[in-house]
């Protein structure tokens, strides 16, 4: 264990030992709004509804999920950043909050304008190829791609984690391929199944259906560990890319200026519901993994992610025209 990991572990233990849930006995005294900055059925929406259901029972107060999609999640994030900082309007944010500021000149809102409350889940991307192409491993894929320059590869849009995964693959491997952007995960999967592109990275929460249906073959996941839904699929690290770890993350944010006792109280409630085995099992079936972080560690993670993706965006010359 590194010194940084040890410090994080000590911070986590100390935070968990404190009675956060008892610091705000009157919260909530009315319904809470949880904004999902994406369309119904999307990964953030699914997670928001799973979380809202359990928090409603925990608090004995209704937690409403409101979808506010658009601008890569910025519209929903902005609405929460401008809300009253009292804990009654929350955001189910994601890695997009750390990536978008590097892609848009005038981003509406980013994670730095919000208060990180707690991370709840992570989900890797999955490298997919067509079963009919006979490619069974990353090594075979690498060899095949070297002999097929200018191969088209699909992704759901600029700045999405699959796009970041493709960009990372390009930088680390120097393999020749052409990245084709689609308008969303559904469109990217449709293009893949229609053989418009020969391979793609897809979010684990979005492509398991294609894998189970035999329309896509998984070669590797981009997470730090294998996922329960695909226990026999190796990580990119295991497949020979030691620095290839990319995971979408999802977490709760509050408006800037929200009092710390309220933030800690919400985080305490979130921890209680997401560490329940039922929630973990549900995430596993979706291709995700329960990953809880308290406010201080989540804030450090968001900051580190902002710096990390800024470097990649610059190195890969990623931009939204």
UniProtKB/TrEMBL annotation:
UniProt entry tagged with the keyword Signal: yes
Keyword Signal: yes
The entry's keywords: Receptor, Signal
Leader sequence segment: 1-21
Domain of life: Bacteria
Family note: Belongs to the UPF0065 (bug) family.
PANTHER family, alphabetized: BLR1237 PROTEIN (PTHR42928:SF5), TRICARBOXYLATE-BINDING PROTEIN (PTHR42928)
Descriptive protein name: Tripartite-type tricarboxylate transporter receptor subunit TctC
Organism name: Pigmentiphaga litoralis
């Amino acid at each position: 264990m590194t010194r940084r990991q040890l410090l994080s572990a000590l911070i986590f233990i100390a935070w968990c030992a404190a009675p956060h849930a008892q610091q705000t006995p009157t919260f909530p005294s009315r319904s809470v709004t949880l904004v999902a900055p994406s369309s119904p059925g999307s990964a953030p929406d699914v997670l928001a509804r799973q979380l809202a259901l359990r928090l409603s029972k925990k608090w004995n107060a209704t937690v409403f999920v409101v979808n506010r999609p658009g601008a890569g999640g910025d519209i929903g994030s902005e609405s929460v950043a401008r809300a009253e900082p009292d804990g009654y309007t929350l955001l189910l944010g994601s890695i997009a909050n750390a990536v978008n500021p590097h892609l848009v000149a005038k981003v509406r809102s980013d994670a730095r304008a919000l208060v990180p409350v707690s991370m709840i889940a992570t989900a890797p991307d999955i490298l997919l190829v067509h079963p009919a192409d006979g490619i069974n491993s990353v090594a075979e894929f690498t060899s095949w791609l070297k002999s097929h320059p200018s191969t088209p590869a699909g992704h759901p849009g600029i700045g999405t984690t699959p796009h970041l995964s493709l960009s990372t693959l390009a930088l680390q491997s120097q393999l020749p391929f052409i990245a084709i952007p689609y308008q969303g995960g559904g469109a990217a999967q449709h293009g893949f199944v229609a053989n418009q592109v020969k391979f793609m990275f897809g979010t684990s929460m979005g492509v398991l259906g294609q894998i189970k249906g035999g329309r896509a073959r998984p070669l590797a996941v981009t997470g730090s560990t294998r996922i329960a839904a695909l226990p026999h699929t190796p990580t990119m690290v295991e497949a020979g890319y030691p620095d290839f770890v990319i995971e979408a993350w999802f977490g709760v944010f509050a408006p800037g200026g929200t009092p710390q006792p309220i933030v800690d109280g919400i985080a305490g409630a979130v921890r209680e519901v997401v560490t329940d085995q039922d929630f973990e099992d549900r995430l596993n079936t979706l291709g995700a993994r329960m990953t809880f972080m308290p406010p201080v560690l989540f804030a450090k993670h968001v900051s580190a992610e902002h710096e990390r993706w800024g470097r990649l965006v610059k190195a890969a010359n990623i931009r939204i025209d």
